[in-house]
Amino acid sequence: MKVDYLNHPFASKRHTVFAKNGMVATSQPLAAQVGIEIMKKGGNAIDAAIATAAALTVLEPTSNGIGGDAFAIVWVKGEIYGLNASGPSPELLTAEAVRALGHEQMPRLGLVPVTVPGVPAAWASLSKRFGKLSLKETLEPAVRYAEEGYPLTPILGKYWKRAYEIYKKQEGREFEAWFETFCIDGKAPEIGEVWRSKDHADTLRKIGETGARSFYEGELADKIDKFMVEHGGFLRKSDLAAYQVEWVKPISTNYRGYDVWEIPPNGQGMIALMALNNFEQLDPPKWQSAETIHQQIESMKLAFADGKAFITEEADMPISTELLLSKEHALYRVKEIGEFAIEPKPIELAKSGTVYLATADSEGNMVSYIQSNYMGFGSGVVVPGTGIALQNRGADFSLDENHPNYLKPKKRTYNTIIPGFLSKGKDAVGPFGVMGGYMQPQGHYQVVINTVDYLLNPQAALDAPRWQWISGKKVHVESEFPNYLAQALQRKGHEIEVLADPGSFGRGQIIWRNPKTGVLAGGTESRTDGMVAAW
To answer: Domain tally for the chain?
Structure first.
């Protein structure tokens, strides 16, 4: 891939980082350094990913936690593997039970949307299958940061305070432990203030020592079960004990000679692939062209329309993944794209806020990993005495029995978190990802286009001004987005809104590997406190 690594077309002060022995890219500098620390102790890219992910539950709890879900794409010895560590709904959680509580749709916070956490099982499974070090050893840096504490970085502090303002409005004793765990003297910690959590350290230590079994069958599972029973939640120890991660074959599409890989449903990664398929059928892309960006947005709209209508667990999807990812489907869909913005609708069928990290080592192993509690800290519910903030993934279930993502017991919901990977022929190019709810497939899509079509280096591909389709004809753009392009898009019928805060446009990481020299090139997100740690 011939790119210009020196002449940066955007305003970032960062440049692509190069290294030979190892690299970790993520949104928190201390966490990135943890991954390198583990590599220097003899660990590989998989060990580094686990260590970094565990550290991020401490170092960036505003976006993820022990009680969340995870997905990973792993490249080892020329083979690609996928891990789905998202959890299902509890056995007791039914649509009828939710309606009986007075809800017409799934609530966003509290005990109801809590599903089985997959994060600890993801760490244990990755370690057992591909790691060189023990799980206990890989979690030691995270334990250390939880016990000793660390000072909050600027972006972290902003989102911590935002969560505090949301949760202090909630009523119910189930929210009390969040304030006991994540506040200092009853308030959110300030930027630069040191926060620590002994409970978090103890929990991580137990997970490491037991290979995560304490979380699913032992002492930690008992504490989760007791708390849920006391406060009227649905999750039980039996749900935890029954949980198993799923190793899956990643899905892909070939985009202009490159294979772009994502995890299959229940994740939303296929939306990025469908959008790329759509865009590939149109006119060759032109740099900084309003017509090209219009086509990009319209291609994404159509992909999202189909994805939101049909993605859930594959067994419950009314249309196959293979059909949705076919080039024939793309050719059919792009017929709807014209000169002006459209209101996207899904195809008609025949009747019948996440943390992302990337790692790479000198052996050629690479990991694209993502984990999240969803919507920041998640449900707002913390299990007392554990530091475990529980996710609220169940918020995405539908209570409409005619929708594919209708709530059922033991079912995995549509999941927003997605890791990405790029390869060409038999060679790995590398892991990439952009976190941030429904921005994620849009971020993946724009990063791939920036890389493949415009030959931008990793840092430039991340720094390029982004757009985000919201709904209908509504599109948000960053303040750095060229004004002349925004005006041209408005003339094409798009309802453009310029946002001063870049926080909603995703936060990404990239590591590319030169197949001939083994040299690693990494970029990190300028929209957050990110860092590329290299060795």
So the answer is: 1
188 within 8 A of 164, measured Cβ to Cβ: yes
Rounded distance, CA 477 to CA 458, Å? 21
Which one, of 463, 461, 442, 454, lies nearest residue 512 by Cα?
A: 461
The residue whose two tokens read 């699913």 is: 216
pLDDT value of residue 354: 81
pLDDT of residue 12: 63
Indicate if 115 belongs to the active site. no
Between β-strands 474-478 and 495-499, what pairing exists: parallel, antiparallel or unpaired? Answer: parallel
Give the residue among 262, 189, 285, 233 at the shortest CA–CA distance from 418.
262
* CA nearest to 147, candidates 200, 209, 186: 200
Q: How far apart are CA 328 and CA 309, in angstroms?
A: 19
Q: Answer whether 340's CB lies under 8 Å from 19's CB.
A: no
The pLDDT value given to residue 14: 80
Question: Which one of 115, 312, 354, 528 is the catalytic residue?
Answer: 354
In the chain, % helix, strand, coil (3-state, to 5) comes to 40, 20, 40
Residues 199-233: pLDDT tens digits?
999 999 999 999 999 999 999 999 999 999 999 99
Helix runs in 41-192, H state only: 45-59, 95-100, 119-130, 135-148, 154-167, 176-182
Q: Is the dihedral of CA 272, 277, 282, 285 positive or negative?
A: positive
CB 25 within 8 A of CB 509: yes
Query: Half-sphere exposure of 271 toward its Cβ, with a 13 Å CA cutoff?
Result: 35
Enclosing domain of residue 320: 1-535
**Regions of the chain with pLDDT less than 50:** 349-352
H/E/C letters for each residue in 105-135? CCCCCCCCCCCCCCHHHHHHHHHHHHCCCCH
Please state, in angstroms and rounded to a whole number, the distance separating the CA atoms of residues 188 and 390. Answer: 19
Closest CA to 168 of 181, 186, 154, 155: 186
The C-alpha angle 504, 510, 516, rounded to 5 degrees, equals 165
Closest Cα to residue 423, out of 65, 79, 2?
79
Nearest Cα residue to 511 out of 6, 21, 13: 21
**Concatenated DSSP letters for 263-322?**
PPTTBSHHHHHHHHHHHHTSSPP-TT-HHHHHHHHHHHHHHHHHHHHH-SSGGG-SS-HH
SS3 at position 74: strand
